[in-house]
Design goal:
403 residues; mainly alpha; Growth Hormone, Chain: A; globular; membrane; transmembrane; MFS; MFS_Efflux_Transporters; transmembrane transporter activity
Length: 403
C-alpha cells in the first residue's frame, strides 16, 4: 500500500483522538471552568454538529484547489482548533476551539477517502479506505485511553496540546507523502451537488445514519450500563472502551477486505449481525464476561459497515464523489446524535440502562432494510439497462457494477 495512506491514517488518528478524548476528561474540564457536566457536554454536542455542517461546507469550498492542498488546510485548521482548546481562558473559547477542530473532521475523511481510493487499483479501493480509517480505530485503542490518562495526571490542557502536535505530524505527512494531482478535472460546486440527484447516495447516507447510529445508542450510555448493570467499577470502563476500540480495529480491516470482494453481501451480513448483537446485549449486559465480549463484537460489526458504505457512496457518485463522501462522514455524526437522543428518551422513560440496546437494534435493522432496497434498485437499473435516478448515476452504475 502507498505510504500516502500512512499520512492519512496519522491525520485520522489525531481526529479520532480529539473527538472521543473529551469524554474521558469532561469532569476535569467542567471543574476548571466552573460549569456543570451537562454544560460541559456541549463540547461533545458542539463537535458533532460542527462535523455535520463543516463536512459539506468545507468540501464545497475545497473544489477550487487540489485535494492535497485541501487536506493540508484541514489539518492546519485541526491544529488551530486544538491549540485554541488547550489555551482557552474561558469555556466559550474552549467550545469555539472544539467547533473549529470539528470543521476539519468530515471534510478530511471525505476528501481523504477519495484520495485513498485513487491511490490504489480499483479492486483494492475499499481496503485503502479502511487503512485510512484504521487511524480512527487505533485512536480508540491507544489515543483516547492515553489522552485520558495524561489529562487526569497532567491536566486536560496538556492532552489537547499533544493532539495539536499530532495534527502537525499529520500535516507534514500529507505535505510529504500525498501526491499532488492538481485540481480534480471538472470539479465545481454544481457538479458536486449534482451527485445528490442519485437516490443511491441518499440511501447510503441513510444507511450510515441508522446503521452506525445503532452502535452509538448503546455506546453513549455504556458507563452506567457497565457499572449499574454489569457490575464493573468506574475505572474499568476505560479498559472496556479499549476492547470496543479493538473490535473497531478488527471490523474495519475485515470490512475493507471483504467489501472489495462482495460489497453488498458484506453490508447485509454486518448490519444483520450488528442488530442481533445489540439485541443480545440487553441480556449479556448482566454478566461481566459476556458484556465485555458483546461490546467488542458490537465495535467490530459496527465498523465493518464503514468501508462498504463509504465505497458505495464513492461508486454511486463517481462523477463528483468528494462532497457526497464528506456528507456521508457527517451522516455518521448525525446518527450518533440521533441515537444518543433516542437512547436518552427510553432511559428517561424508566426502561433501564439496557433499553438503548433495543433502540440500537431497531436502528440497525432499519439500515439493513435500506440496504436491501439499495441493492434492489441497483440490480433493477443494471438489468433494465437504465438508471433509476438523474444523470449523475449514469457513470456510477457501471463503476459500482465492477465490484
Amino acid at each position: 500500500m502507498p505510504l500516502a495512506l500512512l499520512a492519512l491514517a496519522i491525520g485520522a488518528f489525531g481526529i479520532g483522538t480529539t473527538e472521543f478524548v473529551i469524554m474521558g476528561v469532561l469532569p476535569e474540564v467542567a471543574d476548571d471552568f466552573g460549569v456543570t457536566i451537562p454544560t460541559a457536554g456541549w463540547l461533545v454536542s458542539g463537535y458533532a454538529l460542527g462535523v455535520v455542517f463543516g463536512a459539506p461546507l468545507l468540501t464545497v469550498l475545497g473544489t477550487k484547489v487540489s485535494r492535497k492542498k485541501m487536506l493540508m488546510f484541514l489539518m492546519a485548521l485541526f491544529v488551530v482548533g486544538n491549540a485554541l482548546s488547550a489555551l482557552a481562558p474561558a469555556f466559550g473559547l474552549m467550545l469555539a476551539g472544539r467547533i473549529v477542530a470539528s470543521l476539519a473532521h468530515g471534510a478530511f475523511f471525505g476528501i481523504g477517502s477519495v484520495v485513498a481510493a485513487d491511490l490504489v487499483a480499483p479492486q483494492k479501493k475499499a481496503s485503502a479506505i479502511s487503512l485510512m480509517f484504521m487511524g480512527l480505530t487505533v485512536a480508540n485503542i491507544v489515543g483516547v485511553p492515553l489522552g485520558t490518562y495524561i489529562g487526569q495526571a497532567a491536566g486536560w490542557r496538556v492532552t489537547f496540546l499533544l493532539v495539536a502536535a499530532l495534527g502537525i505530524v499529520g500535516l507534514l505527512g500529507v505535505a510529504k507523502l500525498v501526491p499532488e494531482t492538481g485540481r480534480p478535472e471538472g470539479a465545481d460546486v454544481r457538479a458536486e451537488f449534482a451527485a445528490f440527484r442519485n437516490v443511491q447516495v441518499w440511501l447510503a447516507m441513510a444507511m450510515t445514519v441508522f446503521g452506525y447510529g445503532g452502535v452509538f445508542a448503546a455506546i453513549t450510555y455504556i458507563t452506567p450500563m457497565m457499572t449499574d448493570v454489569a457490575g464493573y467499577s468506574a475505572g474499568a470502563v476505560t479498559w472496556l472502551l479499549v476492547l470496543f476500540g479493538v473490535g473497531m480495529f478488527a471490523g474495519n480491516l475485515i470490512g475493507g477486505r471483504f467489501a472489495d470482494r462482495a460489497l453488498m453481501p458484506m453490508l447485509f451480513g454486518s448490519l444483520a449481525a450488528l442488530s442481533l448483537a445489540l439485541l443480545l446485549f440487553t441480556a449479556t449486559a448482566h454478566n461481566k464476561v459476556l458484556a465485555a465480549v458483546t461490546l467488542t463484537l458490537i465495535g467490530a460489526l459496527g465498523f465493518a459497515t464503514v468501508p462498504p458504505l463509504q465505497k458505495w457512496v464513492l461508486d454511486q457518485a463517481s462523477a463528483a464523489p468528494t462532497l457526497a463522501s464528506a456528507a456521508n462522514i457527517g451522516a455518521f455524526n448525525l446518527g450518533n446524535a440521533l441515537a444518543a437522543w433516542l437512547g436518552g428518551i427510553v432511559i428517561a422513560a424508566g426502561l433501564g440502562y439496557t433499553s438503548p440496546n433495543w433502540v440500537g437494534a431497531l436502528l440497525s435493522g432499519f439500515a439493513l432494510l435500506l440496504s436491501f432496497l439499495a441493492a434492489f434498485l441497483h440490480r433493477r437499473a443494471r438489468t433494465g439497462g437504465r438508471v433509476v435516478t438523474g444523470s449523475p448515476a449514469r457513470e456510477a452504475v457501471p463503476a459500482a457494477a465492477r465490484h
